[in-house]
Each structure stands twice: as structure tokens, then as C-alpha cells.
């Protein structure tokens, strides 16, 4: 029954995110909001909606390790597996702006989590916990990121507009409401199922969050990036991954910690430093080996790095 809950919940989450994104994008288009702004905000929210739903529901249910592990694990999966697989399909060309602005912002988000999560080491508390102050700080960073995003959109209004399927207003609203309902119920089923599986196997929720839940909630990003690569437009993968990672840390984790403090539990500095390391790897891979290009060789290395990390988690059980 737990596996059924997990699969049904995941299906509702993915379909809900798809309907929510389509409805919101079409509604925004009807009000003449630029496609670029839609892509940088609504579509980014849509692909990260599974992480948002699972993390908030987990936080409310008292499964803090699942909530944090979902974000950290998803971000590691996004960089190593999504970028890695996409680069194997087709080498990824990175724009100069992404290399000098967006990727450093993603690295900054890792540093923020490291600082906020190390209360014991920094002698600011008796246990490592993301409290409401940490959550509000992350939401402030998210507001700054949104301001930057709109500034970039304003500076690039002449770019080619993305194709968005037109919908009537009532269908837009139906898609949005239906998507939100599917996300809420799917998120609850997914968290209940994964938590029960963790308990039955004697596996900590932190490991489940870092692996199974992270992989499941990252499926929209993976699908988007692989399809982009098959359409000979693999550079979209970088924007998709970086935007999702920033959204996951600054908004998803920030919102979850604001709702209720999140003790780190089984999430350790090994996981947080590994996230920082793979973010740096993404920067150096694009910067030095072949200028502003993630090659197939680098893609294979990234996939291998994810397999090693997963093996480490299994070994530590």
C-alpha cells in the first residue's frame, strides 16, 4: 500500500505541476506578460512545484529530514544527473551571463545553507536546525533573485518568444486550480508513502529524502532538459537546473523553515559540502576544460559522481 501511495502521489504531483504550469503560462500570456518572464518565473515554479509540495507537507507533518533531504538531494541530482545526461546527449553551451551570474548565485545558495545549518559549529545553538529566521533570510534572497530575474527579462525583451498553447480564461483557471489540488493531495500521498517505506525498511528519512524523493520530484526538470537536448537546444538544461536549484533553496527550503523549524537530523555536512562541491564542479567544467561548454566526457564524469554519492549513502546505512 505504501508503494501504491508513493506512485499515485508522484503521478498526481507531476501531472499537477504540468497543469499548473500550462494554465499559469497561458493566463499570463493572455495579459501580455512576456514569454521570457513566464519562463523565468512560472515555468521555473512549475518544474519545482513537486519539491515545494513535498518539502512543505513534510515540514508540516514533522518530517524535517525528508523536507531538507528533498531539497539537497534534488539539487545534487539536478546538477550531476540532469546536466550529466543532457551533456551526454548533446554538449551544453553555457552563456557568459549564466557562467558569471547565475551559477555563482547557485554557489552562494549552497554557502547560505551551510552557514544556516551549522549552529553547533558556529556556537549559535545546541543543535543544527533551520529556524524561522533562517527561513526568512532565504526568502529575502529569493526576493532579490526575483528582482534580478525581472531585470534580466527587461533587458532581453527582444529575444525570441516561447510558444505557449493558448487557452480560454476559464480553462486557465481550471488548469491552475486542478493543478494545485493535484499537487496538494499528491504531495500528502507521496510523503506518507515514502515515510512508511523508510520506517518499514529501517532507513532514515534523510536517506529517503536524499535519494528516492529527490529523484522523483526532479523528474520534471529531467524531462525538460532531455527533451531540450533531443531538440538540439541543450543549453536550456543549464537555465532549467540553475533556476530550479535557486528556487529550491531560497523559496522551497525558506518557506518550509518559516512554517516550522527544521532540525537537520541525518542531513550532515557531508551532504551540504557535496552540494557545494558539485556546484563548483559545474562552474569549473563550463569555465576551463572547453570554454563555456559541458562536454560528453564531463557529462559521464558527473553521472559517475552521482553514482558514487548514492553508493556512499547506501554504504552509510
From TrEMBL:
Subcellular localization = Membrane
Q: Tell me one Pfam family matched here.
A: Na_Ca_ex
- Report one GO cellular component: plasma membrane
Transmembrane helix as a keyword of this entry, yes or no, is: yes
Tell me where on the tree of life, at the top rank, the source sits.
Answer: Bacteria
- Set out the biological process GO terms recorded for this chain's protein: intracellular calcium ion homeostasis
Question: What InterPro entries does the record point to?
Answer: K/Na/Ca-exchanger, NaCa_Exmemb, NCX_ion-bd_dom_sf
* Positions of the Sodium/calcium exchanger membrane region domain: 2-149, 173-314
Q: Which GO terms describe its molecular function?
A: calcium channel activity; calcium, potassium:sodium antiporter activity
Q: Report TM segments.
A: 36-60, 72-91, 103-122, 134-153, 173-191, 241-260, 272-289, 296-315
Keywords per UniProt: Membrane, Transmembrane, Transmembrane helix
Stated membrane topology is: Multi-pass membrane protein
Concerning NCBIfam families, the annotation shows: calcium/sodium antiporter (TIGR00367)
PANTHER family in the cross-refs: INNER MEMBRANE PROTEIN YRBG (PTHR10846:SF8), SODIUM/POTASSIUM/CALCIUM EXCHANGER (PTHR10846)
Q: What is this protein called?
A: Sodium/calcium exchanger membrane region domain-containing protein
Provide the taxonomic classification: Bacteria, Pseudomonadati, Bacteroidota, Bacteroidia, Bacteroidales
Amino acid at each position: 500500500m505504501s508503494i501504491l501511495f508513493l506512485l499515485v502521489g508522484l503521478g498526481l504531483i507531476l501531472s499537477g505541476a504540468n497543469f499548473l504550469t500550462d494554465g499559469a503560462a497561458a493566463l499570463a500570456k493572455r495579459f501580455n506578460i512576456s514569454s521570457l518572464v513566464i519562463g523565468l518565473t512560472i515555468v521555473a515554479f512549475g518544474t519545482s512545484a513537486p519539491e515545494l509540495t513535498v518539502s512543505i507537507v513534510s515540514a508540516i507533518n514533522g518530517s524535517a529530514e525528508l523536507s531538507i533531504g528533498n531539497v539537497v538531494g534534488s539539487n545534487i541530482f539536478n546538477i550531476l544527473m540532469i546536466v550529466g545526461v543532457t551533456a551526454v546527449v548533446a554538449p551544453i553551451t553555457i552563456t557568459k551571463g549564466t557562467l558569471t551570474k547565475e551559477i555563482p548565485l547557485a554557489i552562494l545558495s549552497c554557502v547560505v545553507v551551510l552557514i544556516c545549518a551549522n549552529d553547533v559549529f558556529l556556537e549559535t545553538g545546541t543543535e543544527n536546525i533551520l529556524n524561522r529566521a533562517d527561513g526568512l533570510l532565504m526568502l529575502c534572497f529569493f526576493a532579490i533573485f526575483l528582482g534580478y530575474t525581472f531585470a534580466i527579462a527587461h533587458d532581453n525583451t527582444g529575444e525570441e518568444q516561447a510558444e505557449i498553447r493558448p487557452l480560454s480564461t476559464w480553462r486557465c483557471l481550471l488548469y491552475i486550480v486542478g493543478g494545485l489540488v493535484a499537487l496538494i493531495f499528491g504531495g500528502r500521498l507521496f510523503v506518507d508513502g515514502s515515510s512508511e517505506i523508510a520506517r518499514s525498511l529501517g532507513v532514515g528519512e534523510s536517506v529517503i529524502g536524499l535519494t528516492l524523493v529527490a529523484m522523483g520530484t526532479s523528474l520534471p526538470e529531467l524531462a525538460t532538459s532531455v527533451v531540450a537536448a533531443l531538440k538540439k537546444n541543450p543549453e536550456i538544461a543549464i537555465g532549467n537546473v540553475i533556476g530550479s536549484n535557486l528556487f529550491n533553496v531560497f523559496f522551497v527550503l525558506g518557506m518550509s523553515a518559516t512554517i516550522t523549524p527544521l532540525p537537520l537530523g541525518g542531513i550532515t555536512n557531508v551532504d551540504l559540502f557535496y552540494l557545494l562541491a558539485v556546484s563548483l564542479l559545474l562552474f569549473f567544467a563550463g569555465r576551463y576544460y572547453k570554454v563555456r561548454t559541458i562536454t560528453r566526457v564531463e557529462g559521464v564524469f558527473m553521472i559517475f559522481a552521482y553514482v558514487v554519492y548514492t553508493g556512499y549513502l547506501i554504504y552509510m546505512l
